[in-house]
Specification:
Elements: E1 2-4, E2 21-30, E3 35-42, H1 49-60, E4 75-83, E5 86-95, E6 100-102, E7 108-111, E8 114-119, E9 124-133, E10 138-148, E11 167-186, E12 191-208, E13 216-225, E14 229-238, E15 246-253, E16 256-261, E17 265-274, E18 277-287, E19 291-303, E20 307-318, E21 324-333, H2 341-347, E22 352-353, H3 359-371
Parallel strand pairs: 1-11, 5-22
Antiparallel strand pairs: 2-3, 2-12, 3-4, 4-5, 6-7, 7-8, 8-9, 9-10, 10-11, 11-12, 13-14, 13-21, 14-15, 15-16, 17-18, 18-19, 19-20, 20-21
Protein name: Hydroxyneurosporene synthase
Length: 372
C-alpha cells in the first residue's frame, strides 16, 4: 500500500486495467444529534458482483479481449445515513460511463446528480447530493461542506508505505469540520426530515490496478475524533506471503502529529463468524515499546457477507501518559468472500444496477420497507 497526503493525488487516475478500481470516501458524525453519514463515489466499483462476474468471465476466456471488464462501465455512488445508531438510508447505484464524470486535474467526481468538488478559496470539499430511491419511496437532497483542518506533519508520510504497490491510499483530509443541510423525504409516510448537520468528518481516496479480492486477505480501517484528538488506523493483510502486511496508526493533537507509526505488532481476539458474516475480530490491538492501541467493535451499523461497519471505542496509551479514550467508526473487509457465486448473488440485494432488474434487490427492499 502506497500512501500520500497530497491533494494533487485526489484526482481521477482514469485506470483502465481489468479489475482496477478507484473510490473517494467521505464520512462525518454530528455528536449532538447522534447522526452520521457516508458518501462514496466509485470509478470501477471494486465490490460489484456485476464487475466481478465480468472480470471472471474475461479471465475464463483467456483474457483475449472478449468481454473486457471496463472499470468505467461499473461506476457507482453510495450513501448511508444513520440516526441514533439505526440505518435511515442505504443507497447504492451502479451504472455505465454515461453516468460518471471526473477530472484528471482536480478533485472532482459526479455520478448522476451527485457530485463533489474542492473549493480552493475556502479550503473545503463541497458535496451536492440529489437522488431518489424508488424501491423505498425515499429521496435525498443535500449540500454539505468538509472544511479541511491544517495538520503539521514534519515527516515524509510516503516513507510509511509498505507491501504491494498495486494499491494506493490518499489520506487527504483526516480531520475536517463538516456542516450542511439534508432533506430526506419518505414518500410512504409523506414526511420530510430536515437535518442541519454540524460535526467532524474524514475524507480519503483509494485506487488500485488489480482486483482487491484477488490480492487482499483482510482489511481493517477506522477513525475517531474528539475535541482535540483525531485518529486513523489501517491494518491490511495480503493473500500472498511475499507482501508484507500494511499497518499504520496516526493520531493528531489539534494541529500537530502525536503518533505516526507503522512498526507495530498486531493482535486480535474475540473472533466471530457465520454464513452471512465473514470471520472478524471484535478486539484489535497495535503496540510497540512506546504505545498500546486498542479497538473494540461495538454497535454494527452495516452487516454484510464481506463488509462490516461498526461504531467502535478506541483507547490509545502512550508511555508515561494517561489513556486517551475515543469513539468512532471502524470498518472491516474480507474481499475473498466475493469469490463465491452465492455471496455475489446476495450482494445484488443492496445494489441498484442501471438497466438490470434484480429479484434480490426488489425483495430485499420490499421486506425492509415493510419493517421500517
Amino acid at each position: 500500500m502506497r500512501i500520500s497526503t497530497s491533494i494533487d493525488q485526489d484526482i481521477w487516475h482514469d485506470l483502465k486495467d481489468a479489475g482496477s478500481y478507484e473510490w473517494w470516501y467521505f464520512d462525518a458524525k454530528d455528536e449532538d444529534q447522534n447522526c452520521s453519514f457516508v458518501a462514496v463515489w466509485y470509478s470501477g466499483f471494486a465490490f460489484s458482483p456485476y464487475y466481478i462476474n465480468r472480470y471472471n468471465q474475461w479471465k475464463a476466456n483467456g483474457s483475449n479481449g472478449k468481454g473486457f471488464p471496463n472499470p468505467l462501465e461499473h461506476a457507482a455512488f453510495s450513501f448511508n445515513f444513520y440516526q441514533n445508531g439505526n440505518e435511515v438510508i442505504n443507497f447504492i447505484k451502479e451504472g455505465g460511463s454515461h453516468l460518471f464524470e471526473s477530472s484528471t486535474e482536480k478533485p472532482y467526481a459526479k455520478f448522476e446528480k451527485n457530485e463533489f468538488f474542492y473549493d480552493e478559496t475556502h479550503r473545503c470539499y463541497v458535496l451536492k447530493l440529489d437522488f431518489e430511491m424508488p424501491s423505498r419511496k425515499k429521496s435525498v437532497k443535500a449540500e454539505v461542506r468538509f472544511r479541511v483542518c491544517p495538520i503539521q506533519i514534519d515527516r515524509n508520510i510516503a516513507a510509511y508505505s509498505a507491501g504491494e504497490s498495486s494499491h494506493s491510499w490518499v489520506l487527504v483530509a483526516p480531520r475536517t469540520e463538516v456542516f450542511g443541510q439534508f432533506e430526506i423525504y419518505d414518500g410512504l409516510k409523506n414526511r420530510m426530515a430536515r437535518v442541519a448537520f454540524k460535526g467532524k468528518g474524514y475524507h480519503d481516496h483509494n485506487y488500485g490496478s488489480i482486483p482487491i479480492n484477488t490480492d487482499i486477505e483482510n482489511w481493517y480501517w477506522g477513525r475517531a475524533h474528539s475535541h482535540d484528538i483525531d485518529l486513523v488506523y489501517y491494518i491490511i493483510s495480503y493473500k500472498h506471503q511475499i507482501h508484507a502486511p500494511f499497518i499504520f496508526l496516526m493520531a493528531i493533537d489539534k494541529e500537530e502529529v502525536l503518533v505516526l507509526e507503522n512498526r507495530l505488532q498486531f493482535s486480535e481476539s474475540q473472533s466471530e463468524q457465520n454464513f452471512f458474516v465473514p470471520r472478524y475480530s471484535k478486539t484489535l490491538s497495535l503496540s510497540n515499546q512506546e504505545l498500546q492501541f486498542t479497538v473494540q467493535h461495538q454497535n454494527g451499523l452495516e452487516i454484510g457477507p464481506f463488509y462490516l461497519r461498526f461504531e467502535s471505542t478506541f483507547q490509545l496509551v502512550l508511555q508515561g501518559k494517561p489513556p486517551i479514550e475515543l469513539r468512532g467508526i471502524s470498518e472491516f473487509l474480507h474481499p475473498d468472500k466475493v469469490d463465491s457465486g452465492v455471496i455475489r448473488h446476495l450482494i445484488k440485494s443492496k445494489i441498484w444496477r442501471e438497466d438490470n432488474y434484480s429479484v434480490m434487490y426488489t425483495l430485499y427492499n420490499f421486506f425492509n420497507r415493510m419493517l421500517e
